[in-house]
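Ticket #4471: structure export looks truncated?
Reporter: QA, pipeline team
Priority: medium

Steps to reproduce: submit the single chain below to the structure queue and open the exported record.
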Amino acid sequence: MRQICCFALLAMTFLAIGISAAQVPDLLGDWTAEWNSYDNGIGFSNSTENESLLISITEQKERIFAGNITFEMDNESISSEGFAGAIGLDGKTLYISEFDRGYSFGTLISSDEMELIYLQDGDDGSVAIDKIHRINK
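Actual output as written to the record:
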């Protein structure tokens, strides 16, 4: 009986460790996005065929990552800014701070797909829901 209790306790310990230690996903590579947004003074908008958002994640060390976001219109770069982010303990929740302004919170849906919700406050306030897909590693 004592051996069974010790074995059960040991098994539960290994299960608890496995459940709490989510594997860190590899986010390195280039990603592209489609979005729906609302901007103060402009209203609702969607991404169009001549607009693109390129997210390049160029560095990752464990759960911290960094890179650049480039917005293009008619194949010309309109704006580019750096960002850094973190992956939550669950291995799926994402937190991103853009260096110029704004924050994103999101979920890793699969190894090549994520959803981010962007928030920016102030006079130029906006919110966007981005559907993001990896285009290469």
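Status: closed, not a bug. The export was complete when the record was re-opened. Leaving a note from the reviewer for reference: The chain has a mean pLDDT of 87.
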